[in-house]
Batch of 3 targets.
Target 1
Amino acid sequence: MKKYEIAALSKQELIDRLKELEDRLADINFFKVIEQPQNPMVFRNSRRDIARMKNRLHQLAAAETGQA
């Protein structure tokens, strides 16, 4: 997901997508033991998307409390 796509999501949508991505990453890590994925970049991309979403949620929370 791109940065501008994440910025366009509402807070609840971010929370829902974050939960989905974390579940997906856990599944990918589980199945990695059985068979190597065809695209190993899926781990890196998933972790980065999760970090971007958490960062955006933190920014929204800071804006609500009036912090810089």
Target 2
Amino acid sequence: MDSDGQTLVTVDSHRMYYLITKEEEGHHELLLISNTAGLEVYSFSFGNRCLEQFDRL
């Protein structure tokens, strides 16, 4: 987390990134900002509660 309270994620390989886990149900906002040209996002997945353990957090 930076000094502004924002969480930073370093995208360093072609793989799935788990950005939010175990949030309470309700309204949430996810804002993605890239400071690198060429970043591409191919898909999102929400609500996958069947995964409890992540090997790449």
Target 3
Amino acid sequence: MNELSALSTLSDELIRLFDREAQAQFDGSAIGEDAFAGLARRLFRLQTSLNPRYRPVVESTGLASVDDWRRFPCVPTAAFRDSDWSCIPRQERTGAFVSSGTTRGLRSRHCHSRRSLALYRGSLYRWFFHHFRSPRNAQLMVLTPSPKDAPDSSLAYMFGAVSQAFEEADFYGRISTDRAWELDRQRLVTDWNEARRRDRPVALLGTAFSFVWLLELRELPPLPAESLLLETGGYKGLVQEWRRSDLYDALISRFGLERNRLLSEYGMCELSSQAYDCRAGDSAEPRSFRFPPWARCQVISPETEQEVEMGATGLIRVFDLANAWSVMAVQTGDLGRRLAGGVQLLGRASETELRGCSLRFEA
């Protein structure tokens, strides 16, 4: 078996593992520490061989034969702006997810194929519904453009994938003439009021700025009981930023939601797995973001590149097995606080903090 066939086999194996972990309610029985370490080693060897951009980075570190996944060289998300970090042969690529923008005006790209998207869906679908426990009769209202209208958006793809599980779902975002995202406000108000009239629970999915837009629509009444909301962060310079706690307080007050019916998601186009800060209906505080059992999240010191003590702050790293077809080890540009149950997201790291991490190569 050649290495490309071996990666395909491993990709199929991972999907089956995701299924078993989901059936076990994510208790770690299918992908515990030993299983994760073994899968990570196999994947690291294959990515070092098949990813032409990653191979020289690994070789330059002298870590090509290392067995501990914690020591695998991490690729910063900023590096996805300049190169395709992909194991997928060019003739098999079907497209790419592109980031919404960066301070330099460049956009990260994460290439995909039929196989990589199957793995992506396997990861996102199971972990999403473990947290977003909506009533069966809920009407899904998505405040982003559809995957058809935004084919290079990983978020639109994600929402499109989960929307197939709902009997009634619609997208209320659209692309403006200057390529920005906006809301189809008139249609949203009409359907929202109809759901209220029927007393049908609403499941809302959107970015932070789309929920700020909702607060501006005075025609919207409170939501029906058992409604649920998922916020994915992100303002993209379109509106004045709100603190998450202030935004949640405003949404709770305006639409009659309970706080444990508001969830937050943490993801990016460079990763194939997402983290959530709670399960719908849970009231545990403080909230912290948790990735699925097939990913590991670290908070590391930018000076030492070692994991910080519990309660300390550092840069977020993610080792994501669902990123089988690109790079498993990703260095995000975000700051987090390490907590016992996960990581508390603190926002973007400064240029100084990013430079403090000796990444061994320039992004």
